[in-house]
Amino acid sequence: MQLVDIGANLTHESFAPDLAEVIAQARQASVAHIMLTGTDLASSRAALDLAARHPDYFRTTVGFHPHIAGEVSAEDLLAAAKLAREQYVVAVGETGLDYNRNFSPKAEQIRVFERHLELAAELNKPVFLHQRDAHADFLPILKAHRAGLPGGVVHCFTDTRAALDDYLALDMHIGITGWICDERRGLDLQETVQAIPLDRLLIETDAPYLLPRTIRPKPKTRRNEPRYLPAVLDKIAECRQQSVTELAAATTANASKLFNLTLNSSP
Question: How many separate domains does the chain show?
Answer without folding.
Answer: 1
